[in-house]
Amino acid sequence: EDSNQNSSGAADRIFRELEADSRRGHPDLPAERFNKVRKETLPDDANKENECSTSKNVSVQTDDTSPIKQKLGSSQRTLNAFLGDVSSEANNLVPFPVEVTVNLREGSQCAYVNGGIDEARILKPGDVVKIYDAHASSNWTVANSPSASDDGVVTFHLEEAYDHSRIVAQETNARNDTLNRLCYPYRKDVDKPSEMPPANNERTRHVASDANESIHSPLHTKEARIWKLIPEEEDSRTAWRREYDDGSIPWENEYAGRHNSATHFRVRVSLEMIELSCVDSPYPLGQCVHQQRVNFFECVHISNVIDEAFHTVCRWHPKGTLIDNVKWAKLSRKMKLLSNVKNCKHEIDMAFVRHNQDRKLDLARFHAIFEDIALIQYPALPKEDALTKVVRTSIVMLPDVNAMIWNDTKRMAIHVEAKRVCAQRRISALMRRILQQAVYLNAKHAAITVAKHVRQFLARIFVSKILQATREDEEHQRRRRCAKIIQTAWRRFFWRNRFTLHQERRIKRKRQEIAATRAKLKEIRERERSSVVFRDVIRIDSTIAAVTISFRDGNYIQDENSMLIKVYVPTTKGVFAFNLEEKAIRECLEKALSSEGRLSWDEMLKENALKELTKRLMLRVMRGRPIFLFSRRNIVEKGVLVDKRVVRAVGEIFILSTFRSPHDFVFYTYQSSTRLQMRTRLPLSKLREWLRETQEKQKEQFDVCLLEPKRQRELIEWLVKRVVIRKNPKENDMQLLLQFEAEEERVIKLVTKVQSQWRRLKSRRHAKEKTMHQYEKVYVRESSVYAYRNILTDERQWEKPKLLDDDDLDDPVDEWRREETIDPATGKTHQYYANYATGQSSWLSEEDAARLVQRRYRAKHESDLMGKKIQLPDIVKAMKFIHGTRTKYEQDPHKLSNIVNFALLTHCLDLDYIQAKPIYERALQQSPNHPLISRAYGIFLLASRQTPVATTFQTASRLFHEANVVDPTQAKFQSATEIYFRWAVLVDSKNPLALLNFALLHQCIYRKYDHAEKIYRAALSLDPTNTLVLENYRLFIDERYPGGEYLSLGPPFSVVRGSQVVEERPEWAEWSKMIDRGCPKKGMETFWFNRFTKDTSFHEPTWTLVWETRMKRSKCISGKASNWVEYWDDRTQTSFFYDGFTQSYTCARPK
Question: pTM for the full model?
Answer without folding.
Answer: 0.35
